[in-house]
Amino acid sequence: MIELKDLSLVYPNGTQGLKDVNVKINDGEFVVIVGLSGAGKSTFIRSINRLVTPTSGDLLIDNENILDYRGKDLRNLRTKVGMIFQNYNLVKRSTVMKNVISGRLGHTGTLKSILNLYSKEDMALAYESLKRVNIENKIYSRADQLSGGQQQRVSIARVLTQQPKVVLADEPVASLDPPTSHQVMKYLKKINQEDNITTIVNLHFIDMAMEYADRIIGMRAGEIVFDGPASEVNEQTFEEIYGRPIKEDDIRGGKEDVETP
Amino acid sequence: MSKPLNPTGRVPTSLVSGRTKLKMNVIMVIVLAFYIFSSYMTNASVLRFDQAFFTNVWNMVIQLFPPNWAYASIVWEKLLETLKMALVATTIAGILCIPFSLLAANNIVQNKFLYNFIKMFLNIMRTIPELILAVVFVGLFGIGIFPGILALIIFSLGILAKLISETVESIDMNPLEAIRASGGNTIQVIWYAVVPQVLPQFVSFTLYVFEINVRASVVLGFVGAGGIGLILRQQLNFLSYQNVSTIIVITFVVVVVIDYISNKLRRELV
Amino acid sequence: MNINIPPKPQKNSLKILRNIVISIGLAVLYVWTFATIEVPWGRIFSERTLINIDRVIPKLFSPDFTFASKVMDYMMETLFIAFAGSFMAAILAVPFGFLAASNINSNPVFNTIGKWILNADRTFPEILLALIFVVAIGPGAFAGVLAIAIHSVGMLGKLYSEVIESIDMNVVEAMEANGANKIQIFFYGIIPQVIPEFMSYAIYRFEIDVRASTILGIIGAGGIGTLLVISSRNRNWDEVGMILLVIIVFVSIIDYISSAIRKRIV
To answer: Would you say the ipTM is above 0.85?
Structure first.
């Protein structure tokens, strides 16, 4: 369980990233955070794996306050919390397999990881993860030879290899076209259901949020302005969250393409 | 009918504004004046290019021919020594530059003081030409290849660390965040996210520095720091011009061949 | 869990062979180099070296400031050599640049000859040129200026030709359509496009030449190197320290000014 208590974050330049946020996220939930850019969505999820550090309040994961974690504890936390990025964040010159196995780094000694000495189990796990997102045939391709959707699937496989309890996804489909976006969201949903991984996704497309989320959290100016099950949400809710009428840009549209294995 | 071209009656007198023209003229006069002054101070005015000058140079040139091929075996031996010096120096500089180039990259080192200190240190290192370093090291360690290698290492370390730190500064930072987010420690972040992005440039720049070192090591012998320069200067002092031209021709061909190979390799790398 | 090992990467056997050959080649090269390089370690790690270092290093770092004015005189001479050499090269490189630019000079034979001359020139170290001139016309700054000028033409000519090759040829075409002749096109269509870059590269070359000129005196071609040889031969290490300090300061200042000017030009 993830629990944010009166959590605030002020950046060194004075920007308020989060403002008195109080939220409880249960294990296995699929939460979508919506809001305009700059609303604090990114700060919210980056606080959970401490890529940014909140300046006041408490952040409990399984009843442990992670805000004073440093060094080893922090890396340990991060091995349990996987993250997916808008720009995939793969090492473009490395192979797909090398990118995926890098999910095991937190579990592997420095020397072993430098000499590429991974156990059979780790290699098998990485391969299994690639299979789960149907991209195992690209295993030895270089990451920059893949399309955007394929790269995002590789980054999902990297997270799976980490065997996390929580997955954070920061605008995972913002750089993709509509059919690929749906495909990526479907994979995220599938992992969430099969492995019971708590999943927190930032999105700004309202149709996708309604389609995939169990629960929607709306943010504006660092504050939570809506929190409720996806079934209770309609367009008006979004207009309230965004503080303006819905525009065409807020809707992704499209349907998933026929899967190409 | 066409309108009058200049309704106000003012006719432009120039193609550029008066200020620009004045500025250009002033700059040109200053540069030219400084050149004339420099050539006067260095006794290198155009008046020096008289008949005696061309006769002297021509006399020297004809004495260079034909090269004395019997001398070639000695040249080869010394040239190999020169190349070995360049190879050893480049290798050592390549290894030493790794920590320096990471410390001189502002996306890796957050400590501003340390970053600026290392940058300044590298800048100072690059201001002193290798031949001057060689003079100092010969004074310290005596005549031989060791001071030469040391001079090459220090000079090429400065160049290499600068080039590679710039490459490190231009890498995509997103993968670093991803590795950090999955729990990797600093060394793992560098090895998995920085090294793959930098490696091709690293090899390419090291080859480039090897080219520079080959050319530099040719002249180190002038100050007693080993290599082919030693016999070159010696043969010039003996006025054995045909041996001199043998040295020049062979060295020149070898340098061109090395440059060619290295260029080809580098083009394939990046 | 059912362990399912990923398939072995399939590699081109030719590629593997190539990698093995390269690895063995490199290994042999290194073993041979380190095995046959003759470094008199015994002498280097002797007591004498320690005494030398002990005596020399502190003096290097406590430069003799009474020597400063003399060093300045020679440093100024170095700057004059560099400036005169760079200036001559900046002018001489123009015809070579046009000769080697394939969009202006469409004759492939002359074009290749131009490129080859410039390449050969760049490969020839200036200090070697200086040495030849010292022998031919006697020691002095003139030999240094000549060496700097001739060597710099190689790099400047190449950079100039690249600038010329990148100009907008549509302008030239438009002028041809206007009925302008070749000389008019040259002055109105080409020169304005290339002048800022030419100047920027010439200043950059001056920056390099200042550094290069500091060594000329070592072989008798004028400048601060002359002093360096005398001081180091006489083992006046505090004087050597002063010389190094002046070189570092001057080269740094000139680098700074030069890059500031170049940023404004382009």
So the answer is: no
